[in-house]
Amino acid sequence: MKIYNTLSKSKEDFVPIEPGKVTIYACGPTVYNYFHLGNARPFVTFDTLRRYLEYRGYEVRFCQNFTDIDDKIIQKANQEGVSIDVISERYINEYYVDADQLGILRPTYQPRATETIEEIVSMISDLLDKGFAYDLEDGLYFDVSKYDEYGRLSHFRLEDLLAGAGERVSAEDGLGKRNHGDFVLWKKKKDNEPAWPAPWGEGRPGWHIECSAMIKKHLGDTIDIHGGGQDLIFPHHENEIAQSTCSSGKPLARYWMHNAFVNVDNEKMSKSSGNFFMIRDIVQKYSYRVIRFFILSGHYRMPINFSDELLAAATNSLNRIIESVRNLEFVGSHRSDSRFEDVDSESEALEKAVTEAKEAFINAMDDDLNTADAITAIFMLVRAANSAASQNGKASAISLKNALNMIIELCGVLGINLTIDAEDEGVPAEIMLLVEQRAEAKRAKNFAGADAIRDQISALGFVVKDTPSGPQVTKQ
Ligand SMILES: [Zn+2]
Asked: What is the domain extent for residue 451?
C-alpha cells in the first residue's frame, strides 16, 4: 500500500514497524457539542483506513481520544451550572449515537484526557528536566527554539515561527513567553476551573500534550500512522511531535495522514457564515449511510463539497447498489440453472467481473486509500451483475450469489453495511404477507382481488412487480 505522508510530501510505500501489525492514532472530538460534517470526515476516513488494513490481514490497534477538558467544555458547564463531567459524559454518549450509525467502529482505545493526567504530568516533568519546557506564572510552556526540527511537518521554517508567524501562530495566554511560537503544556488553576495536582502547581493540561501522552501510554513511543484533519497539521501535530520526540528521543509517527476540508456550497464551512451542519441535523434529510457514502465518494485529500444536489446524487448512487443487491438476492434464489444453454459462459464472465472488481478495489485502496476509485470498482461489478441478473441474463444462481457477496464484502470494507436488515430499506413482514395473498388471488384467477391487494401494498409505500421469477417488492 502507498500512503501520502505529509512529512515527506510524497506517496511512500507503507511498511509497518512490526510486520503484520499496525498502530494508528487519530485525534478525536472535544466533547462539548454534537459533531458536524467537518468532524465526521476524519472519523470516517481513519475508520475506513483501519477497516481496510484489517481486511488486508493486519492486526490494527487504533486509538482515538476524547478531549474532555477544554475552555469550551468549562464554559458550557458554567452556563448550565453543572460540572464538566456532566457535559463531557453527555456529548461522549451523543458522539456514539452518531458514530455508531455512521458505521464507525469503536477504537481499540478511547482514552479521555482527564484519565491520562498522570502520564501527562510525567511527560511534562520529563520535558522540564531535559530543558525543553519552562515555568511561567500562568502555566508551563514548551520552548520551540530548543527543538531544531520544529516546523518539519508543516514545512514552516523555524526562523519564521520564532520571528512571529503572524496569523499562523495561535495566541495562547503566556505573558513572558520566550518565543512567539512557544505553546502551553499545563495551564495553572484559575478561579472556577477544574484542576489536578502537579509538582509545579495544580491546573489542567494543554490540548497538545494530551495526545502525546495518550499515544505513549496506549501505543508506545513511535506509531505507524498518525491521522487528523489538515487543520491540525499546525500547530497541533507539530506540537505533538515536538513534545513526544523531545521527551522520548524517538520519532512520534512514521506516516502522517491528513484529510482535506469539507466545503458547503463551495464555501468553507464555518459557524460565522451560518453554513455549519451537525450530523444530527443532516440525518433529518439523509440517512447516516448516505452521509458515510458521500464522504467516501471523494478522495480524502481532496476537499469535498456539501450540497443538497450532491447528497441527493449520493443517495441515488447508494440506492443503485442497494437495489442491485436486493435484485441479486431475489433472482439468485429463484433462478433455475437448467433452463439455459449458455449458463457456463455467462457464469464465467460474471465470475471474471467479480475477480476484476476486487482487484480494482484493492488497487484503488492501496493507492493512498482512494475510496473514490474503490467505489467505481464496486459499480463495475454492480453493472455486470445487474445485466447477469436481468431477464436476458443466463448466469448461474451460484455466480449471482458470488457477485452479491462480493458487492456486500467490498461495501463492508468501506463501512457501508448492505445486509438487508436496515429497517429503512427492508420489506416488513406485513407487506410480504400481502404479496403472498396477492399471488394466491392471481392463482385463483381472482384478478380484481389481486389488484385490490396491489393497491393496498402501494398505499403502504411499496411497489410489487411481476418478474419471470415471481413477484418482487421494493420500497416506493
Ligand atoms: Zn491530537
From this structure: 429-475
Q: Taking the CA atoms of 359, 365, 366 and 370 in sequence, report the sign of the dihedral they define.
A: positive
* 106 alpha carbon – ligand 1 mean position (Å): 18
List, for residues 411-454, the tens digit of each pLDDT value. 999 999 987 544 444 566 677 778 888 988 888 899 999 999 99
Cell numbers 505533538: residue:
240
Measured in Å, residue 211 CA sits from the centre of ligand 1 at 5
Residue 2: what residue type?
K
Assess whether 321 and 235 both reside in one domain.
Answer: no
CA of 42 to the centre of ligand 1 (A): 12
Residue 310 Cα to ligand 1 midpoint, Å, equals 31
For the stretch 123-132, pLDDT in tens is 999 999 999 9
- Whole-number Å distance, alpha carbon 430 to ligand 1 midpoint, is 50
In sequence order, what are the residues at sequence separation of 6 or more whose Cβ sits closer than 8 angstroms to the Cβ of residue 407?
321, 324, 325, 328, 378, 381, 382, 385, 418
Distance between Cα 236 and ligand 1 center (Å) = 6
Q: How far is the CA of 78 from the centre of ligand 1 (A)?
A: 25
Three-class SS of 156-172: CCHHHHHHHCHHHCCCC
Please tell me the total count of domains within the chain: 3
Distance CA 368, CA 301 (A): 9
User: How many whole angstroms from 416 Cα to the centroid of ligand 1?
Assistant: 27
Report how far ligand 1's centroid is from the alpha carbon of 149 (Å). 19
pTM for the whole structure: 0.87
Q: Are residues 17 and 125 in the same domain?
A: yes
Contact 135, 178 (CB under 8 A): no
Condensed to tens digits (0 to 9), the pLDDT of residues 353-364 reads 999 999 999 999
Spatial distance between the Cα atoms of 187 and 21, rounded to a whole number of angstroms: 37
Is residue 193 assigned to a domain? yes
